[in-house]
């Protein structure tokens, strides 16, 4: 039941537009492999794919760095306002304002002169890291504090402890967080749409795919839309294969009692 729409989209991507519109057959009468080459070149999917990779990769890296440092600081350090910070992070997860925040976000990026590039989209996506923060916080709590104490006895600073001990031991959590972050950034539609309305060359794959479907010649490009949808799935599958190895990993016992 879950795979059926994907299979139908994959088979439809090899059909002609007339055959796909008629919907009389499941398998293509003639396999049109050229659909992928045409959608890659004529529909500018190469540009859209690069833009999506640029946004998704930088968003993933930035989110992992910021969220992991925040999780380490909350669990290991004592400072004024820590409980307030955690409460604010939790509030952003349970209060969904939706499109209401688009205008202030855009105006903020205008003041920072980042509204004409994808950098503004990346910064906004990185700032929304609450659920990644709580995922990594649980992994940080599982790391024995004896490692920190042993490192401090050897004269290590907090920065050294985080970069050399905590961060490497967070690999299982980082893998899970990277998968979720990359998926959300790759599938993001509203933010890239708002920030690229005046610059089509900066559109991401989700925006470009929707434009292909609802454009002027949408009725003549349904087979291209199917091929583009199948192409958009490939990066997510690759990231899943790479991150899946970390799902079954656990923090190795570094301290034996």
From TrEMBL:
Predominant place of localization: membrane
ABC transmembrane type-1 domain span: 49-243
Keyword annotations from UniProtKB, A to Z: Cell membrane, Membrane, Transmembrane, Transmembrane helix, Transport
Membrane topology per record: Multi-pass membrane protein
Segments traversing the membrane: 53-74, 86-106, 118-140, 161-183, 224-243
Subcellular location, record wording: Cell membrane
Family: Belongs to the binding-protein-dependent transport system permease family.
Name the record gives this protein: Carbohydrate ABC transporter permease
Organism (species): Paenibacillus radicis
